[in-house]
């Protein structure tokens, strides 16, 4: 059974930084693309960053230049470094492979709150 545990969120002032971690058990990640998603209050969940199995990264325009996704296949983990945070980055952040079936449960997420 696949389990995802996200951590590292918190409360930070605008302009600050946070580093999120995601550890996955139950399946190896090294052959999978992975992504960080976020869901703000009253909004749909959105994919903000992806990293391919080979390390190629992509970002939604709103976080380009500020967020960096990385992975450590040895630790079965994915990370999201978030700099120059803005109030609009406030959301619950989730980690998941875009290729996973809907039968794989989402993790509990980690709350990021950016104060003005």
Topology:
Blueprint: E1 3-7, E2 10-13, E3 18-25, E4 34-39, E5 46-51, E6 57-59, E7 67-72, E8 77-82, E9 91-96, E10 110-115
Parallel strand pairs: 2-10
Antiparallel strand pairs: 1-3, 3-8, 4-5, 4-9, 5-6, 7-8, 9-10
Question: What can you tell me about this protein's structure?
Answer:
- With 116 residues, this protein is mostly beta strands.
- Helix content is 0%, strand content 48%.
- The protein contains no helices and 10 strands.
- The strands form 2 sheets. A 6-stranded mixed sheet has the order 2-10-9-4-5-6, with no helix packed on it.
- A hairpin with a 5-residue loop joins strand 5 and strand 6 (57-59).
- The protein is globular and about 40 Å long.
- The model has no long low-confidence stretch (mean pLDDT 97).
